[in-house]
Design goal:
By secondary structure, this protein is mainly α. It has helices spanning about 5-45, 50-75, 85-105, 110-120, 120-130, 140-160, 165-190, 195-220, 230-255, 255-265, 270-280, 285-310.
């Protein structure tokens, strides 16, 4: 093969990669906006459903989509019996506890504050890795985690007078979501070597639907409560949050890598704050907005530093 032809092939490959990255960045940007709107839809649907009831309907819709994709792309993967308890534990931490805490917290504090607290996830992950697994932490990561903690303290401190009026419960629930999501990440990481992403997700969705089914039946509202807009909201949450969102995220992990993908999700407080302000008429103080910006920026530093360490290892 001539040198010129080899160069042309490399140029075509580079152009193809650049195009794939561009469309992936575009999709992830749209997904962050859709995730921010999810909270508005969820708050509307939660007027007739309990949080666990919503989880059942949402994940059942997502499960149907993911099962169809799995049957088309990965029919051979079979879950081993010894791993079933771990899958159940993943569903309890990553879907049931996480979203129960998140959805319930919205009854006590604005959506924007919930998502700002959730941006603390990467900082807590670093703390857990350092304390429990004795992993090395760089100086920028330490600074980022410290600033994250100070930002969260600033946000909660502004609400000091309102903490005893119910907001403390909201903050505790939001932190419960942070802890449960970190537990989910560490549990799921132990399964990644044995199963494909589609098998992991499909199995966890099935476990979540089965675990929440009894509660959903027990708390089922009358059929007339399921108006067209409520049904549309449930379908939207199932397809975007539990279905298409997963597919786009997995594609993003493959094309632009885990660090860039995590950075996108960290901008969720911006879109959720916007939709909360426009559609839910929720507002937070200027100091809390500043604290939120500090948390998001510091978390981005933590994610980038962690990505560099993972690449080196």
């Amino acid at each position: 093969m001539s040198e010129k032809r080899q160069i042309d092939i490399e140029d075509c490959k580079k152009e193809s990669r650049d195009r794939a990255k561009f469309y992936t960045y575009l999709l992830m940007s749209g997904l962050v906006i859709a995730w921010g709107f999810d909270y508005v839809v969820a708050k509307h649907v939660l007027t007739i459903l309990q949080p666990l009831g919503l989880l059942f309907f949402k994940y059942t819709v997502g499960m149907v989509l993911i099962i169809c994709i799995k049957l088309k792309t990965d029919r051979k993967s079979i879950v081993r019996k010894k791993d079933i308890p771990l899958f159940v534990l993943c569903s309890i931490c990553g879907e049931i506890l996480y979203f129960f805490c998140e959805y319930t917290a919205m009854d006590y504090i604005p959506v924007s504050l919930v998502t700002i607290i959730l941006a603390f996830v990467p900082a807590l992950s670093i703390i857990i890795e350092r304390v429990i697994f004795k992993r090395t932490v760089t100086k920028p990561m330490t600074i980022g985690v410290t600033i994250c903690i100070l930002g969260v303290a600033l946000i909660i401190g502004v609400d000091f007078e309102h903490l005893l009026q119910g907001r403390m419960i909201g903050y505790l629930l939001a932190f419960g979501a942070v802890f449960s999501w970190n537990a989910y990440n560490f549990l799921t990481a132990s399964l990644h070597d044995r199963y494909s992403s589609i098998t992991l997700t499909c199995t966890q969705l099935i476990c979540t639907s089965l675990l929440t089914l009894p509660y959903a039946i027990h708390t089922m509202p009358p059929l007339e409560a399921f108006t067209p807009d409520m049904i549309g909201g449930i379908i939207y949450l199932g397809l975007i949050n539990a279905g298409l969102g997963f597919l786009i995220t997995v594609r993003s992990l493959h094309v632009i890598g885990p660090t860039s993908t995590a950075l996108f999700s960290n901008f969720l407080p911006i879109t959720s704050t916007f939709f909360g302000w426009i559609l839910l008429h929720e507002s937070i103080s200027g100091v809390q907005l500043a604290g939120g910006a500090v948390v998001v920026a510091a978390a981005c530093v933590v994610i980038k530093e962690k990505g560099k360490m993972e690449e080196l290892s």
